[in-house]
Amino acid sequence: MKYLVALAFLGILASLAVALFFMLRDGRNGRAKSGGMVRALTVRIGLSVLLFLCVLLAWKLGYIQPGGLPIGK
């Protein structure tokens, strides 16, 4: 489970980096905008929702337990 979460976070960060690249590159020097930034941000949203659903499913199936903070510390 830890590896899945870490991989999802890396994917989210990578898609943000790709969106930044397209934001800085597209529309300069008379070039048309390609829509790459929108696709990268859509991938980021999809990965975030998938990660949330996987964590929720793992909690429902009992693979992970909520720990919380001890009261009074």
Structural account:
Helix 1 (2-25) runs antiparallel to helix 2. The protein has 2 helices and no strands. Helices cover 68% and strands 0% of the residues. It is mainly α and 73 residues long. Keywords: Membrane, Transmembrane, Transmembrane helix.
Question: What is the secondary structure topology, with strand pairs?
Answer:
Layout: H1 2-25, H2 36-61
What's this entry about, in short?
By secondary structure, this protein is mostly helical.
Tally the beta strands. Answer: 0
What's the alpha carbon Rg, rounded to whole Å? 18 Å
Runs in which pLDDT lies below 50 for 5 or more consecutive residues are: none
**How much helix is in the residues?**
55-70%
General shape: elongated
Biggest sheet descriptor = none
Coarse structural class: mainly alpha
Distance between the termini: 28 Å
Mean pLDDT: 87
The share of residues in extended strands comes to under 5%
Give the count of helical stretches. 2
String of helices and strands: HH
Features:
mainly alpha; 73 residues; elongated; single chain
